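Input chain follows. Return structure tokens only.
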Amino acid sequence: MKELAEFVKERRKEVDLTQEEFADRAGVALTVIRKIEQNKTNLNLGKVNQVLKMFGHKLVPMSLKELDDNEAS
């Protein structure tokens, strides 16, 4: 299974967008795209899903606690 960072970076390059252009189209800050592509662990699930929505995908929480934490964010 591909890591999130690799998936996003490959798809972004396939559509020939810079990180900045992609962030703008996804409606997120440039730092969100950079964090995802650098495989950072402190990501907001809502923001990640905004990015993945561009490719028809989404992540789901692994537990109810994660779901509660993300709704509070």
